Amino acid sequence: MFDKILIANRGEIACRVIKTARKMGIKTVAIYSDADKQALHVQMADEAIHIGPPPANQSYIVIDKVMDAIKQSGAQAVHPGYGFLSENAKFAEALEEAGVAFVGPPKGAIEAMGDKITSKKIAQDAQVSTVPGYMGLIEDADEAVKISNEIGYPVMIKASAGGGGKGMRIAWNDQEAREGFQSSKNEAANSFGDDRIFIEKFVTQPRHIEIQVLCDAHGNGIYLNERECSIQRRNQKVVEEAPSPFLDEATRKAMGEQSVALAKAVGYASAGTVEFIVDGDKNFYFLEMNTRLQVEHPVTELITGVDLVEQMIRVANGEPLTITQDDVGINGWAIENRVYAEDPYRNFLPSIGRLTRYRPPAEIAAGPMQDNGKWADDAIEGKAFAVRNDTGVYEGGEISMYYDPMIAKLCTWAPTRDEAIEAMRTALDGFELEGIGHNLPFVAAVMDHPKFISGDMTTAFIEEEYPEGFEGVSLPDEALRKIAAAAAAMYRVAEIRRTRVSGRMDNHERRVGTKWVVTLQDQEFPVKVKADKKGSTIKFADGEKLRVSSDWTPGDQLATLKVGGETLVLKVGKISGGFCIRSRGAELDVHVRSPRQAELAKLMPEKVAPDTSKMLLCPMPGLIVKVDVEVGDTVQEGQALCTVEAMKMENILRAEKTTVVTKINAAAGDSLAVDDVIMEFE
Fold first, then answer.
1. Exactly one of 288, 301, 342, 645 is catalytic; which is it?
2. Is 419 assigned a catalytic role?
């Protein structure tokens, strides 16, 4: 076995690989850019080597710099993680020439499957069903428009060397095909150093389901079931689960066997993923093969008990698989939510900054693995659920504009899908994250969405269910009552503390009342609080009573309470006369007032937001790539105004109405903050 492995990556995947290497007794080497000097993966590794400036194309994807780090460290093997150089055949070739093991597939398999155009042709030759499309290279936007018309709209414009949603656009007409071609080409060049583009038919109402394969260099290959990855935004996955709620055993077997056959056809050896589009009749079409570890691999590990990173390392060491297809089962259900540094209230645009508070829920193991990488028979006995959090950040750390906006991958496991969802709801409620915009409210809302709960979703879920964007969650009356009862009980505790503050003026004793009016989500709940040593009984105006008990103390930002006999987890912040509470994706200002205060509060004028309708504001911290208009231009609704790049993604900002440009405050190359004024209109 190897003595030392270098991880040619950063963030959560580097930390993930380090954990398994440490378990196997293998020393690890991290590499880092200037922006990652204090990163978690650098702190976790046994040693770390600096490789250059923050931009990935000057550090993490520069093969010569990574090879220098390998030489300095004396590492015998390299795990590439995902992204960066993980599917770069030239990197695999450089390692082979240097006598360093690549913890991934052979160079030939990367070349054959890593290139989407080549892989489509191989899949067709192997009698694998593929989506109609144009497999040749496309030279310019005019040719892209011509091909799109021949295939028929809608079409998907893709970077041949792409992955992770980078370099992908859906076009519904000629204008979008022209714009999408150029943006995809630019993103592909910046992210992968390869700007080749191809076009295929976009299948409407599709589900995105992928098969995990594992092969060795001795001709053995197995599939470890499927993952459902249909909930996506901007072609990037947000929620994954295993198994899929849609597949039956026959379809699973057919997809799995085709995937293994395809892998064997190119001499594949390592972990890899074959992705499919599946329609409503369970017809499946090959999309691509990712010749690397997938972001969402934890859900497969949770239902099979197989440590995929360990198996990759063992295969790279020349060992045969000890797991056969008959050994692979489906044990329970697992769900993963990707926690991103992005603002769901601003159309999921990236957010950067410092994590002033980062307290993920405690991890709970489902049970031990055996030496062969499978769950022991009694591993989950007595364990109702498991919680896993793969992360690469820490409290006080910074989310950089140079890399992917992922903060963590929160996973839950339980015997059934419903139980796994409920475990995820509780885990999300207990996830403390402050300092940046994040998508916790959105993924919490998804966990409660009827369409997700039913399992009847497609890749268009977000567009269909949130057509005007995510505007927050409105909780039902039952949930509001529980929060109102909890807030009344907590406010009483806070009031008691305030009465004990020393230095009060004479004859100004503060009394704690029993009657309060709790206001939240535009509703009022008059309540009466009756307290004792074990908790409080909250009586509502209609006579309903809820018993509240907890050990919450003022200042705690997380409250775990029993309300009406059920557990309620709340994130709690302080506002004047109440709390800012987050629960199940809802963010609520909860005011607790005396009856007289509540009466007077209704007379207070509401603060009016400033009018920004005649301005184009920068929706995220980013770099202006280009400005498409000039002062004096008349712009039409939907017309492109400028392009902003952030976290390797290009975002085209468009006019919301027909108007005239009166002032432009930014130019290509300018770095802007959120809400900076880019241009003004008549």
1. 288
2. no
